[in-house]
Structures are given as structure tokens and as C-alpha cells.
Amino acid sequence: MKALVFKDVGKLVLEDRPVPHVQEPDDVVVRVSRVGICGTDVKILEGKHHFKPDTVLGHEFCGEVVEVGTHVHHLKLGDRVSVDNNIRCGFCTFCRMGLSSQCVEIKQNAIGVMRDGGYAEYCLVPEKQCYVLPAEIDDVLGSQVETLATVVNGMNHLQMMPYDYVLILGFGPIGYLFAQFAKNIAAKVAVTEIDAFRIGVARQCGLTVWNPNEVNIEEEVAAFTYGRKADIVVEATGNALEQALTCVTPGGKVLPFGMDSSITASIVPNEVTRWATKIIGLYLGQNTMVPSIRIFQEKRLDMKPFFTRVIPLEQGLEAFSSLGLNPKTLQHGPKTRHRPVPGTLETDHRRVAGRGRGGLRLAHLLRQLLAAHPQRSVGDRPADAALASP
């Protein structure tokens, strides 16, 4: 099968790899339909996020179950599933006290970060990480359930009210999703962004947007809120916590949601105490995959401007340049829109790679093998797996 493999910092390579088969009784093999390119993948390529060399990246994906282990009881062959890539052990004190996002094993087990993920035609996944998708959610949207689940966790902690003034720093995919929730709930919402392409998307969504390189954000938000400043500030860039603290009203909430391990910040603890600022720390999703599926199923968010384009897996490396990172030099530049391509999705925000021609060729080969060996029993496969005809 074709796979985009992260070899080391700055090196992402398209390789031929063996198709995975179940290793444990509760494993399933997912034929990947769509996989999103996340900002975390960009940071891994830059070396700004923990990583494991020689790993297939891609942690936002969905697909079809084509092989199951003997102890798989809740999924069946042919199910369309979205994958929660963060595998929790279920036994550490964090897991057993309802804080599984802090599981002691999660850093070592993340699919698409520390073990092979969705930048491939097939992926090996524990059954418990799979969530069946309803027919109302197509494959493109299904790839983003895990992304939305992290934001839903943030919303659960923020407890946004209809009278809140909300400011979102950064209008990448995460900022976009928070802004969609705020438009549905809050009294007023504004966003900041420095990239011209994303500023255009924010305006397309009907949002007030400011470029911090051109205006004083603290002054703008004060005027926007009649001198009050924001009740809620979501910091969705990973590098603007200090800015967030200047824009929040006394007693307000700041959610540092963006992640960048290379960034440090200086704050005055007395200011946090004096103005009763609530800084909320959280990580990943927390029992929020099912709620996210429900939100997508009921079309509660405007997702049309969210996606850029569906591309073949073979073009995945090129997509990083459109996300503002030159893979060869690791230098950042402006984000761009792809030209329309017949038969692909062309809208606006996040790039989603699909199965390329290699996947079709592989499916044809598997059909040939099954036809040539009809007497082969399921017990011949590891862990008594059953293989669905592609």
C-alpha cells in the first residue's frame, strides 16, 4: 500500500508498505477513506511536537472496516467509522478518575503520531477507538470528528453563555470551529488572524476579524465590547497567551488551546489573581466523539468554508506548502488556495487527502488473490481475522 511516512524532522516520504493485518483479538483494519492534514502534523514535520521517526502520520481520519479480530463484537465488516487516535489505557489513576486525556500512556500510543496512522491506504486500529458514522455524515466531514471532539471538550469547560462577548485568537481550523459555536451561542464574537487567506474565510463566515500586525487588538476588543473586553478568550495559535490576558475582562475566562512547545510566555501572577482571571487548561477530547458526531449529523455548524480540497494521497506532501510550510526548508509562507480540480471538493479552509489510485490498484489485487485462493480460511490470518472483499 502507499503511505506517507515521517522519517525525521523535515522528511516526509511516500513509500510502499505492507498492508497491516490484525495483531490483537480486538484490532480492526480500516481502509482509509479521508484523512485531514492537521496543524499538529505541520509541527511534527518542523520538530516542534513529540514524534517517532519512521511513522505514518495522519490522526484525523475515517474509513471502512475491512478486517476484524476474534474479540471484535461492536463493529462489523463494512462499517464506516471515524477514529479517535488517542488510545487510553483505562487503568491508570487518571483514566479511572475521569481524566483520560491525561492517561500516562497516551503520549506513547497516539495513532498517527507515535504509531502508524491515516496517511496510508489502510490502518490498524483498536476497536474501542472506532465510532460508527451515520449516513448523514460523508467521508470528508467524517475525517473531522476527532478535531471537533477536542473543541467540544473546550466548549464543555468554557460554558459559553448567550450574553458572552467572545474573542478567538487565530482563525485556523480550531479557531474556525470555536467561532462557529460562538456564532450560535454568544452575544458577539470576533477573531484575529494574520494570514490573508484565512482573513478572507473569516469574512466569508460573517465574522469581525482583525489583523494583529495592523491594529491594536486590545483597543479593538475594548471598543467592540463597549469598554468591557471579552468574557471569553480562546487562544488558538499556541503563541498568544500574553495577548489573551490583555483582552479578557475581569472575572473572564482564557482558554490556551493552541499548542507549540517552542513558545514561552511571561505573565504577572498578581494580575491573574487581582482580576480573577480563570485560565483553563485542558487537552484533547474527553468523551466527546459521540457528541461531535451528533453535532455533524444535525448540521449544527456551517462547515462549507472549512475545507479546501480533496487530493490523492500521492500529493499529500505538496499540501503542506499550501498550509504555509515549505517541507524542504521548513520556512513559513502565506497559505494559498488550490485551483479547482474536476471531481474534487473545492471550498476553503482545511485540506483533506483521500485514497489515491494506489488504493484502487491494491483493492483489485486483493480481489485477484481472494479469487485465486477461495479455500483460504480466516484462521490463516493473524488473530483469526476476517477480511472484507474490497
What features would you describe in this structure?
The chain is an alpha/beta fold and 390 residues long. The protein has two domains: 228 residues, Alpha-Beta Complex (Quinone Oxidoreductase, Chain A, domain 1); 124 residues, NAD(P)-binding Rossmann-like Domain (Rossmann fold). It has 13 helices and 17 strands. Strands 3, 5, 6, 7, 8, 15, 16 and 17 form an eight-stranded mixed beta sheet that branches. Strands 11-10-9-12-13-14 form a six-stranded parallel beta sheet, with helices on both faces. The longest helix has 16 residues. It is globular, with a radius of gyration of 22 Å. 44% of the residues are buried. The C terminus is likely disordered.
Query: Kindly, what is the distance between the CA atoms of the first and last residues, rounded to a whole number of angstroms?
Result: 13 Å
Helix share, percent: 25-40%
The CATH topology of the largest domain is given as Quinone Oxidoreductase, Chain A, domain 1
How many runs of DSSP E, i.e. beta strands? 17
Q: If classified by CATH, what would the architecture of the largest domain be?
A: Alpha-Beta Complex
Unreliably modeled segments? 337-348, 355-390
CATH superfamily of the largest domain: Medium-chain alcohol dehydrogenases, catalytic domain
Question: Mind summarizing the main beta sheet?
Answer: 8 strands, mixed
Radius of gyration: 22 Å
Mean pLDDT: 86
Q: Give the SSE order as H and E letters.
A: EEEHEEEHHEEHHEHEHEHEHEHEHEHEHE
